[in-house]
Amino acid sequence: MDEIVKQKEPLVKHIYTADPSAHVFEGKIYIYPSHDLDEDIASNDNGDQYMMEDYHVLSLNDLNSPCIDHGEVLHMKDVPWVSKQMWAPDAAYKNNTYYLYFPARDKDGIFRIGVATSTSPSGPFTAQKEPIPGSFSIDPAVLVDDDNRAYIYFGGLWGGQLEKWQTGSFNPNGEGPDASAPALGPRVAELSDDMLTFKETPVEISIVDEDGNPILAGDEERRYFEGPWMHKYNGKYYLSYSTGTTHTIVYAVGDNPKGPFVFKGKILTPVVGWTTHHSIVQYQDKWYLFYHDSSLSGGHDNKRCVKFTELKYNDDGTIQTIDPYK
Ligand code: FUB
After folding, report:
1. Of 70, 196, 221, 253, which is most buried by a Cβ count within 10 Å?
2. Is this structure's pTM higher than 0.90?
3. What separation in Å is there between the alpha carbon of 222 and the centre of ligand 1?
């Protein structure tokens, strides 16, 4: 019981953190979160309250050790193409190099995805001078598959601008589909061998129900909103994501890294605060959900804190729903 209570405490309290992407690198757990500013900013649907400027890396030597903050590893002043809002990042390891993928608005206010490299999982990271060509929207998540091919998943509605890319180019007036039409899916592209560019034009992922019908835009309990994460369990691909307006983390399962994915159910019930964002990682013989809530700030949407808890599978491969407050 003590262990569970401890796990649900914020990983760090000296800074606000969110959107945790957790990985096991070099035998330790590394967490790549957003770094929320300690500022009171009015919330709106465009996400203007999320004005983050830099990234810190956190790590745990093991699950009973205190969390280490490795300090600032990348600041927007060192990324020539960025104007503002360094949102949810992810990291990957390949080619003896650590890669940090991050979304931010470019000088035209359009979200793009950048990549930065380091020889160490704790950084510091050096950013490429330009965003990934052809990248757009937010919330990159990278899977390096067992065959060493790497895939990047991304996309987010509303402030994340995914609605504005339905024609393949940016339409500032683009709106989401009607409630009765298929929902927008996240995008996926295989990454080039050097991990710095897309190997192909990103494609839209299809998420369907058990009968093979697309999840509809009006189905806000199940439709994709933002925060994709991909992990593999028993050879299956698990795509998990936030439902945004209904504030849950849900998942869908497929046989292929690009889908289609069949909707399965809920992983995490709503947390304190509007956003919910997560990652799933295996450490030794157990699985863990990293997530955030706004408990540390008493509920401020843009002052969040990263937490983790154990995640359990049923014998049929489904995931047991987690209530973050039980
Ligand atoms: O942290 C800024 C944005 O809020 C992220 O990119 C979204 O996933 C949401 O958590």
Report:
1. 253
2. yes
3. 18
